[in-house]
Design goal:
five-stranded antiparallel sheet; 1 helix; 319 residues
Length: 319
């Protein structure tokens, strides 16, 4: 997928059949797509174009997920800034990202993190996310089974790690982390490791040139795969300390009225300061100074900020 960040982005064809995907944020009434070619004399060039809405990728990869059908976004708690995705259904409502080499982890480490909320038992195998290859089988998939256990599969539906005694069928939010580290698969729930496996499939190569990422998997996602938030995938295996910190830092965002973004409508930072005695980050814009403790915004001070000083709870904000 090519992310358009300039006024004009172009790329050359690569053969008689050339499939390309672009993601762009249309903020201009004059935005458009221009197709041109220099075919050999006597030949014909045919373009087939499909346009779909996409949900933003907020990582440095900037590689959004295409929206198929209708996906619902709802606050994770009353008055909270953070939203969760739901309304998934089999073959109808789901996200998909076309093949990306960023997800070619080979036999190396990788991890998948997400928050999930599901009331009641899972009635069947449910996939939260997977890298899908129609000709070979899923390279990897994460989800839950009818025993209410969480699992990580690597290659062709072989369960490589599965929680055996920790049910996730509660109506509260759970932080789920799936890891492959040095050929061993692990599952972590709410900052605690709950399963590990050295199944031979755990170390297999997960690179497939025609794989797409699906959230959930469109062929078996109808049962229970709802309320997914903060999904991220990495070509690294986080440490135990990293996983615990992620859980502790993020769980506060699932509380009522939890704020997680800059106050106001401007996202242009004009001033920054950090008060290490109070562990507070102050971020100023032309409208507010937002005060964050960890990931949660705990205060919004009205007025523009061109410079900020903060120490031992004292703040000086210049407009």
């Amino acid at each position: 997928m090519v992310s358009v960040t300039a006024s004009v982005t172009s790329f050359a064809g690569q053969g008689t059949t050339d499939l390309r995907s672009l993601t762009f944020n249309n903020t201009s009434s004059s935005a458009g797509l221009i197709l041109y070619s220099s075919p050999v004399s006597g030949s014909t060039v045919t373009y087939t174009i499909s346009v779909k809405s996409a949900d933003s990728d907020r990582s440095v990869g900037n590689n959004g997920l295409q929206v198929f059908g209708t996906i619902t976004k709802t606050a994770v708690a009353s008055g909270a800034d953070l939203v969760a995705y739901s309304g998934f259904s089999d073959n109808t409502n789901y996200f998909q990202q076309p093949y990306s080499s960023d997800l070619d982890f080979g036999t190396g480490d990788f991890s998948v993190q997400l928050w999930h909320n599901h009331a009641g038992a899972f009635n069947d195998t449910t996939y939260f996310a997977a890298r899908v290859d129609g000709g070979v089988g899923n390279a990897w998939q994460v989800g839950a089974a009818d025993s209410d256990s969480s699992y990580l599969w690597v290659i062709n539906g072989v369960i490589c790690a599965r929680t055996s005694s920790y049910a996730i069928n509660t109506s509260s939010w759970s932080h789920l982390v799936y890891v492959r580290r040095n050929g061993i698969t692990e599952i972590w729930v709410n900052g605690v490791q709950k399963a590990t496996s050295t199944n031979s499939s755990s170390a297999l190569n997960v690179d497939y040139s025609n794989s797409s990422l699906q959230v959930p998997v469109k062929t078996a996602c109808g049962d229970g795969a709802d309320n997914i938030a903060l999904l991220r995938i990495s070509a690294t295996a986080p440490t135990a300390a990293d996983i615990k910190k992620d859980y502790e830092d993020e769980k506060v965002l699932f509380q009522e009225n939890a704020k997680a973004v800059l106050a106001g409508t401007s996202d242009e930072i004009t001033a920054l300061a950090y008060d290490d005695s109070h562990d507070e980050l102050l971020a100023g814009t032309s409208q507010y100074t937002s005060v964050f403790r960890g990931l949660r915004r705990v205060e919004a001070i009205a007025g523009s900020a061109t410079a900020i000083s903060a120490s031992n709870g004292l703040r000086v904000i210049e407009d």
